[in-house]
Write a structure and sequence with these properties.
- The structure is a single chain.
- 14% of the residues lie in helices and 32% in strands.
- It is an alpha+beta fold.
- The protein folds into 2 domains: 1-292, 3-Layer(aba) Sandwich (Collagenase (Catalytic Domain)); 295-302 and 334-476, Sandwich (Jelly Rolls).
- The strands form 7 sheets. Strands 16, 17, 18, 19, 20, 21, 22, 23 and 24 form a 9-stranded antiparallel sheet that branches.
- Strand 14 (244-247) and strand 15 (250-253) form a beta hairpin.
- Helix 1 crosses helix 4 (181-189).
- The N and C termini lie far apart (72 Å).
- The model is unreliable at 1-8, 16-42 and 302-332 (pLDDT under 50).
- The structure holds zinc ion.
């Protein structure tokens, strides 16, 4: 007979304090008691996040998305309640922060599966460029969709610089307007995944799936958090108020109140572990004017008034010194030498296994050539590449890497000499492009150079010493050509 662990809660944090869902039996598969609530956040000043609403119509003004400034405010009032435990409050001036945009292309935008994302790169970059015109704000494009009637679909993700929203009354859930939808998409924007992995029509379908997976409930897990248990999304009970569902011999908890669940509920909350991720993402986005840096070698970044100039040896690291990748509008031919790590010859590998990895599943357009070199590594692992330099000269050396929960801290070297500061590739529960990491200005002779990376340490919360490398750019000294 199977032994069931006594308790695992569907933990939640609300503005009123810490609450918990129904206490339910749950197997111990990697699940543990939720962390104690960080109640201090409730009394601290909230970080204001200014929101820009862009109401989209077609080029000719038709198919204008049915949303008003007042409706945006109502959506944001709900979002304020959800994100208060994460120390956020939304600021929106219906007069100043609501704009109209005519663009059939953007108005037609719909989410795409991994296999179709590359096709959407151009329109995604358009939206990124427009969003960059409203710096330091969270930009929401309220668009119509690609049909004759307005869509109720919305989407976002941690690597996008915007949320794609829809008409206020166009979206419904269980027979009423979906007031939690915008807050849910903001959850994706700040790095949260769904609490569920897949969805099922009926309880019987979910039970059959569980049985087929040898009763491993992790098939239902959409996020890696231990305070949001694997949460089967089942349509036939979506509108009830059940907190658990009997699947075979098990009572399986449902995170009905969680903002990243699709279940209907009048209140929506964040778990303590989700709060940690939201705060990490908000802090990271704040450093980059609310953008998410991209790996776009060869693009000249726009000047950033408050950013320090990338200097000879002093710049480096994934910190504020490395600015965001520029919007496509600032694209210019840099004359750079660009190499992708996934195709660069490896000179030497010690305590590391490197293999190319497709990254479209992690980012819509954020990785150079949509791929990286994934390096499964131990501490002190070193990976060296052969890099051809066709012309002698001074170069700004820029590395584009990947941030992930299992990634360590890396020191770069050229010909065995340290260049730039060590950079930390750890991310809290999300995979993201690092954006440009400066290794400083270097004099390189014509010929083959050894560029190497050593894992020297890891963030205390990083689960391993792995790392990921996307591309390297040698930007020649002097004006862009
Ligand atoms: Zn979602």
């Amino acid at each position: 007979m199977r032994v069931l662990a006594p308790l695992t809660l569907c933990a939640s944090m609300t503005a009123a304090g810490f609450g918990a869902g129904a206490a339910l039996a749950w197997p111990a598969d990697g699940l543990s008691k939720p962390a104690a609530p960080a109640t201090h956040v409730l009394t601290r000043a909230l970080t204001p996040v200014r929101v820009t609403a862009v109401r989209v119509s077609d080029d000719d003004g038709r198919r204008q998305t049915p949303v008003s400034p007042d409706e945006v405010s109502r959506w944001l009032q709900f979002a304020d309640l959800v994100y208060k435990p994460a120390g956020m409050r939304f600021v929106f001036d219906p007069e100043k922060d609501f704009h109209d945009l005519k663009s059939t292309r953007i108005n037609n935008t719909m989410p795409a599966g991994v296999d179709k994302r590359a096709d959407l790169t151009d329109v995604s970059l358009d939206m990124r460029r427009i969003a960059a015109g409203y710096p330091k704000t969270l930009v929401v494009f309220f668009r119509w969709g690609n049909a004759s009637t307005p869509t109720g679909n919305s989407f976002s993700s941690g690597d996008l610089n915007y949320v794609v929203g829809c008409g206020f009354a166009s979206t419904g859930v269980c027979g009423h307007q979906n007031i939690s939808l915008l807050a849910h998409e903001m959850g994706h924007y700040v790095g949260l995944a769904h609490t569920f992995a897949g969805s099922y029509q009926t309880v019987a379908d979910a039970a059959a799936a569980l049985l087929a997976a040898n009763n491993n409930p992790l098939i239902f897990a959409g996020d890696p958090f231990d305070d949001t248990p694997p949460d089967p999304m089942i349509s036939e009970i979506a509108c009830l108020d059940t907190r658990a569902v009997r699947l075979g011999e098990r009572d399986v908890p449902i995170c009905r109140d969680n903002i990243m669940s699709y279940y209907d509920s009048p209140t929506k909350t964040l778990s303590p572990r989700q709060v940690r991720t939201v705060k990490w993402m908000l802090e990271r986005r704040s450093r980059f004017d609310m953008t998410a840096p991209q790996n776009t070698p060869g693009r000249i970044d726009p000047p950033r008034p408050e950013a320090p100039r990338e200097g000879a040896q002093d710049a480096g690291g994934a910190g504020p010194a490395s600015g965001p990748a520029g919007p496509p509008g600032a694209d210019a031919k840099s004359g750079s030498i660009i190499a992708e790590f996934e195709t660069l010859p490896i000179a030497e590998a010690t305590r590391v296994n490197a293999s190319p990895q497709d990254m479209l599943g992690f980012s819509w357009y954020g990785f150079s050539q949509h791929a990286q070199l994934y390096c499964r590594a131990e501490k002190n692992a070193t990976l060296a590449f052969k890099l051809d330099v066709p012309r002698e000269g001074w170069y700004d050396v820029i590395v584009y890497a990947t941030l992930a929960p299992d990634y360590g801290q890396v020191q770069a070297m050229i010909a065995g000499r340290r260049v730039g500061q060590p950079f930390d590739l750890w991310a809290d529960s999300i995979v993201l492009p690092s954006g440009p990491i400066s290794l400083g200005r270097q004099r390189l002779t014509k010929g083959t150079h050894e560029v190497s990376f050593t894992v020297i340490a890891k963030h205390p919360l990083a689960s391993a010493f792995n790392f990921g490398l996307d591309a390297i750019e040698l930007r020649p000294d002097g004006p862009a050509r």
